Amino acid sequence: MTDNPPLICSARGCPASAVWSLQWNNPKIHTPERRKTWLACGEHRETLGEFLGVRGFLRDVAPVR
């Protein structure tokens, strides 16, 4: 059995556990079905989502499982 490393928020310098998964892609360089993931804690979900959203990159937000 292997231990999974903790999922940490993608916001710069944030040590909190991730509870949200922000799925995104850059349509200029990624195919439409490709998804990249940023993880977010409750505090940074909105700001990370806004950053991706204003650029047209945000595709989906879901709770981390």
State the strand order across the main sheet.
2-1-3
Q: What is the straight-line distance between the termini? A: 19 Å
Provide the gyration radius in Å: 12 Å
The fraction of residues assigned to DSSP E strands is 15-25%
What is the residue-averaged pLDDT? Answer: 95
Q: How many individual β-strands?
A: 3
Q: From the helix content, strand content and strand pairing, which structural class follows?
A: alpha+beta
Features of this protein?
single chain; 65 residues; alpha+beta; three-stranded antiparallel β-sheet; 1 helix
Quick structural overview:
This protein is α+β, with helices and mostly antiparallel strands.
